Amino acid sequence: MYNDNSRFNVEIIKPWEKSDYPIKYALFDFDGTVSLIRQGWQEIMIPYFTEVLEALHSGESHEELYDLVKLFVTDLTGKQTIFQCIRLTEEIQKRGGIPEEPVFYKREYLRRLNEKIYQRKEALKDGTADPDEWMVPGTRQILERLHERGIRLYLASGTDDADVRFEAELLRLTDYFDGGIWGANDELRRVADKKEIREIKAEVIRDMLDRQKIQPKELVSFGDGFVEIELVAQIGGLPIGVATNEAERTGINEWKRSRLVVAGARAVIPDFSCPDRVIGLIS
Description:
alpha/beta, 9 strands, 2 domains, two-stranded antiparallel sheet, 43% helix, 10 helices, seven-stranded mixed sheet
């Protein structure tokens, strides 16, 4: 039974027999798990959404609204940005307000975020920044190790499809993900008798299981968000939480860790800076 809590701070939440998980496929989240280009996005979204709710003068304090927004933003981390904006419109309606369409809030959030990360992208584009400096420590090494072992790699992100592909290219990661790269698409489609937005990670996992005939126990997921961990836990795969402290680029973010444990992570790691130890989790 794998239960190594020694150096590198591998925290085993629910021990498992490695022989039960003949891993052949690995699904990675992007922002906060692989890429740090958007590090600090919560510091843009949460205050902005709080500002929107405060304008309704509901009688709630700034702290109450901030904590509310932080909770639902965190719970929805890993899904497309539009889902967090949909939740914002629901909170506006609860307080008697008349919201704009969710895409209105998404566009304003992205405008504010892009002001923060524009220089990062430019530095990566013109070669003045080292791509590895804008990734979670050890990312390239773990992708190389997995690739060498013949494990097929998938990348699924709540970031818009064009952006995640562009940012993966800036980080020189595209070639590792032979299983494909998927990002958000906010187009509506008809499901049963109502229109819904595609939930990209659920669709990627469904495709892996159904069309590619992947067995759940052959799949490991690495993510820092609630969604990808919960999805893989529910189907019987091996979900590993990556609770990176993005600002310091070392150690554990305790808020992330607590949410990943609730989501069903079997283990939590701080990053990939000890790739052999991470490989030891699955083989």
